[in-house]
Design a protein that fits this description.
about 725 residues, alpha+beta, Penicillin-binding protein 2a (Domain 2), Beta-lactamase, 7-stranded mixed beta sheet, 5-stranded antiparallel beta sheet, 33 strands, about 30% helix
């Protein structure tokens, strides 16, 4: 017995010694087996970066949603009278089909397969993801055993159809490992998918078989890195002006398509961009074409190109506005060019010819300019090559020079092609005293985790095709097309602002290549204009293709409805005073950085201004507006200092002032609505001590007035006896 037990003990000792020395049992590493049993890893999902407008208003962001899960394993239920798994597969499938986009039979098969394969739970693919709070509550009210929800994120576009072909959209896609990731599929969401993605984090920890953290084990956290935020040059308010005007015209005239752009000629920034048909990026409803027509489609622009023929003539000294020519027709070799009324207006001046948008005026003018000179200047204006706006698939357009007639037709905008963005880029030279600005849509890219600016775009002069004097003279002639009796652009006049621009009526090539379409409903009608004419602050281009016009309507009417609405509203929004406005008393802003905030506050108050201190007081570290700017009496002046911030009353503040305060203070302010502030979630004079959101509600004057009317009708605001 001693020998037997001694032998067993010796064998056990050898076995233990061998395991300790090698760390293996039957070829398996014990450390790896233990790690597999006890080490856990949880994924910390990164939020996709936001897309915002120039003022920080959200265009696209991740929002909280829910994922639908069905627990199908009977092991989940410990009490028979309180089932925690799906008991009735047929009933569950029927009820869920009423709330999610999946057929009842498909839901049933997923549940049935989960039961047969003894799974703990099942999910329902894309139909069971991105569930809204309202749908989740509706399903919960059905009281279905085994139906649970997990928090999820959904890409949300709060403005509906809003520069949709520029912004694009992103969707949740299932990955090879079964996980889901939001992926950009179109537009900026696709182009900047890498920057917006972010990097998931993780949590490593050791637990027992029941999932509890083991004593003395370390929990290692690798934080998620959220995606970068992309700020655009778009202005949400101006974009909304454009979307609303285009929607109204699209509904009234049912054109084949429409495009429009609003740009700042001083910087090249694109403030708004849209097209019709468009789509809702949340639902993809209406998505028939993935083409951004503003960038990717070259068109025969029509008479808007006469602007640049005129500029070439003036710059080269060939423009003689009072000289006369015979309008009506012009013959070159075997081709005859005609004016749009076919017979012309007799012998008229070149100035009147331009105002009447005469093709033969350009043809005669070309004889003095010269073919090669015209093409050389058109190239200086950026035609025939991409603008390099930074968006994919940009078209370059074509300057036709194969035959002598090509030069003539190019002078008035037929034959040769250009993109809408090229027209706007070229027009910046006219509006900006000869300096042509590079168009761009990305303002900056910001690391959402640190607030550090990673990439920032700057205004860039693309070239100087003409002189300041030429640009001024072109603007004067363009303004006369709106004001002169013979002008074709009289519909584009705006009360209080002088508009300068050129109409266009372009032929549309037949798809079978046989020639051009005929009839007044088969043209591309457009207008390329700016205002105020003496110092343009905005350029607006609108093109409407094949609108359904009434017998008495001209093709420029739908174009003018978009242009005048957008231009007038945008100028007023930007505080560009009308020419006939009453002169307002102003003050010149001084430099107050480094001065004592309380003393500056008193001085500014005495000057009729309203200073707002952001901080505890003391030395001023920043200010808005900057030094040298003229500001009207009563304006808000923001003075930044160090220290804790006491919240002011935002009552009746404009959206712009709220956004300035948000940027300078760094507070987490969430803005809802448009117009002027009506309420705030945190009371005035509260010292802000944490990062809790402060919600500012704004309403337009019309909304406020309507609310008062409703209350009056209900008797709530009537005086009491």
């Amino acid at each position: 017995m001693f020998i037997i037990y001694g032998g067993l003990f010796f064998s056990l000792f050898i076995r233990i010694f061998t395991i300790q020395a090698t760390g293996e049992v039957n070829g398996h590493q014990l450390e790896a087996r233990a790690a597999a049993l006890y080490e856990k890893e949880a994924v910390l999902t990164a939020d996709r970066g936001k897309i915002l407008d120039r003022n920080g208003s959200v265009i696209a962001e991740d929002t909280l949603s829910y994922r639908l899960i069905a627990v199908v394993s009977p092991k989940a239920t410990t009490k028979k009278d309180d089932p925690q798994h799906v008991v009735d597969l047929e009933k569950t499938a029927k009820v869920l089909s009423e709330h999610i986009a999946m057929e009842e039979s498909d839901i049933y098969e997923i549940l049935k397969e989960g039961v047969s394969k003894e799974r703990w739970q099942v999910e329902f693919g894309s139909a069971g993801r991105s569930i809204s709070h309202e749908v989740m509550n509706a399903i919960k009210k059905e009281d279905l055993p085994g139906i649970v929800f997990a928090s999820d994120t959904n890409r949300y576009y709060p403005n509906g159809p809003f520069a949709s072909h520029l912004i694009g959209f992103a969707l949740k896609e299932e990955q090879k490992d079964g996980s889901f990731k939001t992926v950009g599929k179109m537009g900026l969401e696709y182009i900047y998918d890498k920057e917006l993605q972010g990097e998931n984090g993780s949590v490593h920890y050791e637990s027992d078989l029941f999932g509890y953290l083991l004593p003395n084990s370390e929990k290692m956290v690798q934080p998620a890195k959220d995606g970068d935020d992309i700020y655009l040059t778009l202005d949400k308010t101006i974009q909304n002006f454009l979307e609303e005007a285009m929607t109204d015209v699209y509904k009234d005239y049912n054109p084949e398509s429409m495009v429009a752009i609003v740009a700042d000629p001083k910087t090249g920034e694109i403030l708004a961009m849209s097209q019709r048909p468009t789509f809702d990026p949340d639902t993809r409803g209406g998505l028939d074409s993935w083409t951004n027509e503003v960038i990717e489609s070259a068109i025969e622009p029509g008479s808007t190109m006469k602007t640049f023929t005129l500029a070439t003539a003036i710059e080269t000294g060939k423009w003689k506005p009072n000289a006369q020519y015979q309008s009506g027709s012009y013959t070159i070799l075997d081709r005859t060019i005609r004016d749009h009324n076919q017979v012309g207006w007799g012998k008229i001046s070149y100035l009147e010819g331009f105002q009447r948008s005469s093709n033969t005026a350009m043809a005669n003018l070309l004889e003095d300019i010269g073919n090669e000179t015209l093409i050389d200047y058109f190239k200086k204006f950026g035609f025939g090559k991409k603008t390099d706006i930074g968006l994919p698939n940009e078209a370059s357009g074509t300057l036709l020079t194969n035959y002598p007639v090509n030069y003539v037709t190019t002078s008035y905008g037929q034959g040769s092609t250009a993109t809408p963005i090229q027209l706007v880029q070229a027009m910046t030279a006219i509006a900006n005293d000869g300096k042509m600005m590079q168009p761009y849509v990305i303002d900056k890219i910001v690391d959402s985790n640190t607030g550090k600016v990673i990439q920032e775009e700057k205004s860039k002069v693309k070239g100087e095709p003409i002189s300041k004097e030429t640009a001024k003279q072109v603007r004067e002639v363009l303004a006369s097309t709106v004001t002169a009796e013979a002008g074709t652009a009289k519909r584009f006049a705006i009360g209080g602002y002088e508009v300068a621009g050129k109409t266009g009526t372009a032929w549309i090539a037949d798809t079978d290549g046989s020639g051009y379409l005929t009839g007044k409903n088969n043209y591309l009608y457009s207008f390329l204009g700016m205002a105020p004419a003496d110092d343009p602050q905005l350029i607006v281009y609108v093109a409407v293709k094949r609108p359904k016009l009434k017998l008495t309507e001209a093709g420029s009417e739908p174009v003018a409805k978009v242009f005048t609405s957008v231009m007038e509203n945008s100028l007023k929004y930007l505080n560009i005073n009308p020419e006939d406005a009453v002169e307002v008393q102003t003050e010149s802003m001084g430099n107050y950085v480094g001065n004592d905030a309380e003393k500056v506050q008193t001085a500014l108050t005495n000057e009729g201004l309203t200073p707002i201190i952001i901080g505890e007081g003391g030395k001023i570290t920043d200010q808005y507006p900057k030094e040298g700017l003229s500001i009207p009496k009563g304006s808000l002046i923001f003075l930044k200092t160090d220290g804790a911030i006491t919240l002011p009353s935002f009552d009746n503040w404009s959206l712009r002032n709220v956004l300035v305060y948000k940027q300078m203070s760094g507070l987490r302010i969430e803005v809802a609505g448009e117009g002027f502030v009506t309420s705030q979630s945190v009371s005035p004079n509260t010292v802000i001590a944490d990062d809790s959101p402060i919600v500012i509600q704004l309403k337009t004057p019309e909304e406020v007035y309507s609310a008062k009317e409703e209350k009056t009708e209900e008797g709530e605001d009537l005086p009491q006896d």
